[in-house]
Amino acid sequence: MSNHWIECRNRATLEPLVENPYRYGIFYGCHALREVLQFVRDHPETLDGAGDSASRKIQRCMGRARNARSHRVRLEYRIARQLQIVHRELIWAELDRRLQVASYLWNRKRYAFLGRELSILANMHEHWRRRWPDSAGPATTPAGEKIRVLSRAMAAGWRLVRDHLESLGISWKTDVVSRLAEGERAVEELRGESKKALYRDQCGGGWLVKYDEESILNPVLATIFSKLTSCPGGEICPVLLDYDPRLGQPCSVQPYLKAKRIRRFGWCSRQDYIALLGGRRLRASQALCQAVQEWLLGNCDGYQVIMDSCGNIVFIDHDRSFFHDAKLLMAQGHARPPRTTTSNRGDGAHDQHASGIRRSLIQATLPIPGVAEDLVGYISRVEAVPDAIYEGLVRNASCRANELCSLFHVDLSHSSAMASLTVMERWIDTLVARKRSLRRIIARRLREALQTTAEVRSSEA
Description:
The protein is α+β, with helices and mostly antiparallel strands. It has 16 helices and eight strands.
């Protein structure tokens, strides 16, 4: 095969890509593309070298290809990988748009990188169309069309959620960090894998801020659901979306409570729970209702619990809410999950029949007068949340660690792309069905737990 050098334009125009993004395989963040285009127009130097980079990528595909057909396949794979890079960056640009960030200059580094990667993608598509003018192109695949449909459903779901929250006067974002940045602040590096800091405001109040991808959106969506359902204890430490202008990136922020960590809460015996709850109705209702919510939202990192100075029990770390349960989907006979799906704990936390709500917790809380009524009230409020709103939350959640909206990290060139999308659709259906049948599932779980208690008492007698 000919090994002649491929020349690509260093200043390839992005207007065609912005006007018709679907032709280039971009199915998400189309509104944010115009912000990127304006940034490139204001700073054309950001595209310097983009054409040379595209030429080198294409040349490597040609150099390793044995024939024209092999060149085409290799280039298709390379374009798909380039598209993944673009989607990862577009997701954050789109989140900036949702947060109504005033200036993309706060994100100058990100927008410069995104403009360059878009230019490389445009050059690679241009070479493809010159080389194979009659081909449908690498963006036109069954998986690509499926992502296009799902991305529209995701955007529509977010609009429903946003409009619903605005009609109820519920806030999902704040501007605490920008105010903290104006005055003195004490920053403490906290333990843990995620990037986080503790800021002090002028009144001495603490605010916990997280910056890594996994800690931004899912906790906010879990908080939104807690507010919609008035989950006991869920309103004490809400997580909101924010933007840090100093770092130029989105973050989550929540009030920092001076509280005692309840170690191994998810493994306590019935006697341990009884001693911890002290017969208090509010504390017991907080523990039981939030445990139900952890299971309902598919939080595979649940049962991380604190007790504040007022004695309230608060479940924290909702980062992994809405995550895929690969084991459950395979047990139900669905498509094999993608290899990149995070592995969940094997303790039944995602079981469709609610066995993740621990028997010992149920046995310790339900005998306390009023707890059963509080649980029924909570379930009624869950049922009152429209299915479309709940589905909108699920569709906009992250599905894998360190990725925001993993729908757009699917490798369209890989043979498992359709199977991966099928898994995502199945998991959305599973969570929505779980919400619809919550009363029946929880009732059965309670009967199982209490029946076991009765059997134990009978044997002791």
